[in-house]
Backbone:
């Protein structure tokens, strides 16, 4: 069986790397303020389970989990599951993350 590829999600603060999370294909990651979120962020504008980053077929997507959640990819508000491309900026309130695809 082929090994899953490792992708990288970096949380930035003031333009500098604050946290790095490694994403394996075929896994699902909930982003939010809840202690049960896989990727926890501190942000008054974020929901406990704000969005999900997942790779059902090897390519990562992002979708909102909360009807009131606002997630942006490259400054564009997402309305439905959005495929992620290497170098995409994800914004949840004032938290910015950068997705980098494995080489």
Residues:
């Amino acid at each position: 069986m082929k090994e899953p590829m490792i992708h990288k999600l970096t949380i930035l603060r003031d333009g500098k790397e604050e946290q790095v999370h490694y994403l394996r294909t075929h896994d699902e990651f909930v982003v939010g303020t809840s202690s049960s979120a896989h990727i926890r962020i501190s942000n008054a504008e974020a929901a406990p389970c704000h969005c999900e980053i997942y790779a059902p077929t090897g390519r990562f997507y992002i979708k909102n989990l909360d009807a009131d959640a606002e997630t942006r990819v490259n400054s564009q508000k997402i309305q439905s599951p959005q495929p992620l491309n290497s170098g995409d900026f994800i914004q949840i309130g004032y938290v910015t993350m950068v997705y980098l695809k494995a080489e």
User: Anything to note?
Assistant: The longest strand covers residues 16-24. The mean pLDDT is 91.
